[in-house]
Write a structure and sequence with these properties.
Radius of gyration: 18 Å
Number of helices: 9
Order of helices and strands: HHHHHHHHH
Shape: elongated
Number of strands: 0
Structural class: mainly alpha
Strand content: under 5%
Length: about 200
């Protein structure tokens, strides 16, 4: 099962004061804000504060830079989201924490609404087999984490954990997509609370 880890690139010819993590973070925010297609190489070079030659030397081009940004996003954003599943309390409590984290992630910064994976990568994946495979891998990773938590529940569930995990992850992605369309924290918090209440009860799933 895929990990949420990040392998930092070895960047050659970097300018003085350049930090790889800072550059990846800058690229991540640009992709997240405007999307893969709209983020031009010139814009990426400017926001990362590196010349085009260094960008290509370090990442091999825009596509591989985007994949590095996805890795960075997974490590810094999705690891805390998955960690919210606990177990720390009851299933309903842990799901409430998970969905709350999803809402915060999607709405805390107006310049980067939604989710880099659910919104940006999914949009870019259409005709790109590399991006489609990456999207499937990232989706599967979160669903696996949810299924692990569900199996820890002491309550009997009529729905197999693997099936319910896909459903729960889909609800979280739906919250991300609504945030991308302009829904606010106040709009989404009641939805998140309702989802935790419904899916946290064995009889409801």
């Amino acid at each position: 099962m895929p990990e949420f880890g990040l392998t930092e690139p070895r960047i050659r010819g970097r300018p003085r004061g350049f930090e790889a993590v800072d550059a990846i973070q800058a690229a991540t925010r640009l992709f997240w804000a405007v999307g893969y297609v709209a983020a031009s190489v010139d814009q990426l070079c400017k926001t990362m504060q590196m010349p085009r030659a260094t960008l290509y030397s370090a990442f091999g081009g825009k596509e591989r830079l985007f994949l590095a940004a996805i890795d960075h996003y997974a490590k810094t954003r999705l690891v805390p989201l998955a960690a919210a599943l606990g177990p720390k309390g009851t299933l309903a409590q842990d799901l409430a924490d998970f969905f709350d984290h999803a809402v915060v992630l999607a709405t805390q910064d107006a310049t980067t609404p939604g989710c880099l994976i659910s919104c940006v990568l999914s949009d870019a994946a259409g005709a790109n087999p590399i991006f489609r495979a990456e999207l499937d891998s990232r989706y599967a990773a979160l669903e696996h984490q949810i299924a692990v938590r569900l199996r820890m529940s002491q309550d009997a569930m009529p729905t197999p954990p693997e099936v319910l995990a896909v459903l729960l992850a889909s609800v979280a992605r739906g919250l991300m997509l609504r945030a991308r369309s302009g829904a606010t924290t106040a709009n989404l918090q009641p939805v998140a609370a309702a989802a935790a209440q419904v899916f946290g009860q064995p009889s409801g799933v």
